[in-house]
Structure formats: C-alpha cells, structure tokens
From TrEMBL:
It comes from the Bacteria. This is Sugar transporter. Keywords: Signal, Sugar transport, Transport. The keyword Metal-binding does not apply. One of its GO terms (biological process) is maltose transport. Gene3D superfamilies: Periplasmic binding protein-like II. Belongs to the bacterial solute-binding protein 1 family. GO terms for cellular component: ATP-binding cassette (ABC) transporter complex, substrate-binding subunit-containing. InterPro entries: SBP.
Length: 419
C-alpha cells in the first residue's frame, strides 16, 4: 500500500500542569521531579518524516509544549527509513525513545512484546478519553488496557469529478449497485474509467467483510471463506467483466489520487491526504467527496491511524506522559489539525474546527464512527502481504478469485504457524 497517509499523522497541545500533577500516583514510575527551569529533564520523541509544512507545524507544537512546561525539553528524532525495524532494534537494545509514533497496523504485535507502557493509570477524568473516536482508540487497546492515544487519522471517502458527473447527468451513488451503474455511464473506453481501484487488502478489507465474512479469525487468514470471496467478486468483475474500473498502473499513474487528478478516473476511493494533493497538484479539477456507497445496506470504510506510545523502559515516564497528554489534548490537537493535514481523533475538536460540516472533509469525519481500522491482530502484516500477492493475479484475470485467495490463505497460515 502506498502509505501516503503516513505523512499526515501529526499532533499537539493541551492539558495544564495542574491537571497533570496527580496523574501518576499508580503508574509504577518512581519519577517525581521532572526537572527544573535551570536544569530541565530531556525526553526523546521519535517519528517518521513528513512534509515541510507538517514538520514546521510539529516544531511549533513542541515549542509550545516546552514553553508551557519549562522543566521539560523534547529531543525530536526523525527516522527516515525502515522506521519499525529501527524502533524494534533500539527497543531490544534498551536504547528506545521515551515516546514514539506507532501505526495501528503494527500496534497489536508490539503490544504483545510488553515493551509499551500501559497508560490507563496516567489518564484522568479531565483528559476526557471518551472524546476520542472509539474505533481509533480501540486500535491501541488490548484486554481493556490502553497502550496508545491516536493523534489523528483518515478514513476513506468517495472522490468524484464534478464536471464529469454534470456532463453525464448522473447523481453521486449512495449504494454500491449504483456505483457500478454510474461507472458504466462515466467510462469512456480506455481514456476515462468510471472507477479507479486499489487491488490491495488495506483498501478492500471493509468490502471483503460486507457480507458478514471475516478476513481474520483467531489471528489467522480467513479470506478464502465463501462470504469473503463473494463480497470481493463484484470488485474484480468491474475490472474484468464490465471494463469500467482500472487500477493506477493501467493508465500510467502511481496511485489513485494521481489517476483521479489526471482525469483518467471519474471516481476513486481515497483519504484525507488526497485533498491537499489534488488542490495543489491539479487545481483545475473540480471534485467533491461523499461517504462510500453502502454495501448490503451497511456503511463501511477504512480508517488509518497512528498513536503516541510510551516506552515501558523509559526512566522519564511522568515527563513522557505530560508530552503525550499535551500532544493529544484538545487545545493541542486543534493547533495541529487546524490546517487539515490530518483529521482530529477527538470528536470535540473536529466539531470545533468545523471539519464535520466541511464540504470536502465532512464525509471523512462521518466515517470515523463505523470505520474498520487497519489493524487486526499481530499477524496482519503476514496476512495482508499474502493477500496482496495473490489477489492481484485474480484482478488481472490470470486465475479465479477463489483459487487465488485459497492459495494466499494457505501460505499465510503456514507462515504464521512456522513463526
């Protein structure tokens, strides 16, 4: 999956020192003094790189934190390549950062290792943890224990070309059956496809489960089940039978956002990251967004999110918590998300900034409450890799879908058993 969404996972500001002073009575940390103004304690925050605009904003947020917490200094480390490999290596070597980014996709596996500090004993009522979108928060919990707080997210929504829709005199589809029919009307040979698709599990997971099937059962692959195959078949048929859908490589594009911007697809399913990209790269294209059409009468979408987590081996836990709570607090999150690089994981912040009513982002915010988070057990990396390896062969018409997914499932589960 092209993880362009990673660039938009930011953070920030809130919670006063008075609120935080009593947060750690049962945390297990022996740390009491978090430094002095003359000799501040230094904590390390590690994450991946982002756009220049986002990097500048994060630096401002960290400066704001240090100004309001003069006894704490933050050393920000950017890990440019192989982020999780570097983090895991450093954690094993007991040289891990105090606080770091953790993608929901990787969270279950890292939680199992015991290297993350549980956060529940630090969280106070004033922090209002219930303000977070529930599916996003649950992605960083296990057995009721919270190990991370989501700093932002993006769901997926339907992006549509307003001019193409107007010229074809068609309405924005609200059901998947309507999407299939509208795609036929909007397709113009191989010059313009009605629908731009992503032949990967990260984008089709919610579709795969739309008929009641489960992609993952007991932390093992289950996508060869009848309900999953049946749910995915229409997606493949749009490409092979109707010839009204295509993937980016079919038209020389790198991802569906580019495919849409080049007006080689009248509709695509994309995330919040596509909005600034389209506005800056293809300003002449007039587009709108809508919630993804319902399948089998039910709403569905994906959510991609990243949290701040604390290293369980950190010797500066109280200071680390103050940073995490500041970055994911209401005021701070409002500062970070105000420019729309990512969506606020707190409902109150989304409402205050007006994103829930925004013409382009409203559909993305609406999907947060029912989204399937891209996180399902510690073996999802193995499960998704094998799905993608075989699903593409069915998408290209090289073999039947059920056969391709049966092989993918068998291979994935063998790898899981041999770990």
């Amino acid at each position: 999956m092209k993880k362009k969404w990673l660039a938009g996972m930011g953070i920030t500001v809130m919670l006063t020192g008075s609120v935080l002073a009593g947060c750690n009575s049962d945390s297990g940390s022996e740390e009491v003094n978090t430094g002095t103004v003359e000799d501040p304690i230094e904590i390390t925050l590690a994450g991946w790189g982002s756009s220049p605009e986002e990097a500048e904003l994060l630096q401002q947020v960290l400066a704001d934190f240090e100004e309001s917490h003069p006894t704490i200094k933050v050393k920000h480390e950017v890990i440019a390549d192989q982020y999780m490999d570097v983090i895991k290596t450093r954690l094993i070597g007991e040289e891990g950062p105090d606080v770091f980014y953790l993608d929901a996709f990787e969270a279950p596996g890292l939680i199992e290792t015991g290297v993350l500090e549980p956060l529940d004993s630090y969280i106070t009522e004033e922090f209002e943890v219930a303000d977070f979108e529930k599916p996003l928060l649950e992605a960083f919990q296990k057995d009721g224990t919270t190990y991370g707080l989501p700093k932002g997210y993006s769901t997926l929504a339907l992006f549509y070309n307003k001019q193409m829709f107007e010229e074809a005199n068609v309405s924005v589809p609200t059901t998947w059956d309507e999407l299939v029919e509208v795609s036929k009307t909007l397709t113009q040979g191989t010059d313009v496809y009605g629908f731009g698709q992503n032949a990967e599990l990260a984008r089709t997971y919610f579709i795969a489960e739309s008929l009641g099937g489960k992609v993952v059962v007991d932390n093992k692959a289950n996508y060869a089940s009848e309900d999953v195959v049946k749910a995915l078949q229409p997606y493949v048929d749009q490409h092979l039978v109707d010839n009204t859908a295509a993937q980016p490589s079919d038209v020389g594009a790198g991802w569906t956002g580019e495919m849409f911007g080049q007006e080689k697809a009248a509709m695509v399913i994309e995330g919040n990251w596509a909005i600034p990209y389209l506005e800056s790269t293809f300003p002449e294209v007039e587009f709108g967004t809508a919630e993804i059409p319902t399948i089998n009468g039910k709403n569905g979408t994906m959510a991609f999110t990243v949290s701040y987590v604390m290293n369980a081996a950190s010797e500066k836990k109280q200071a680390s918590w103050e940073l995490i709570s500041y970055l994911t607090g209401k005021e701070g999150m409002e500062t970070w998300t105000s420019k729309g690089f990512e969506l606020p994981s707190r409902q109150s912040v989304a409402e205050k900034l007006g994103f829930d009513q925004d013409e382009l982002r409203g559909a993305l915010v609406a999907g947060a409450s029912y989204a399937t988070v891209w996180s399902e057990g510690s073996n999802l990396p193995i499960i998704s890799t094998n799905f993608n390896n075989q699903f593409v062969s069915a998408y290209l018409g090289e073999r039947p879908l059920d056969e391709a997914l049966a092989e993918a499932q068998e291979t994935a589960n063998k790898e899981i058993e041999n770990q």
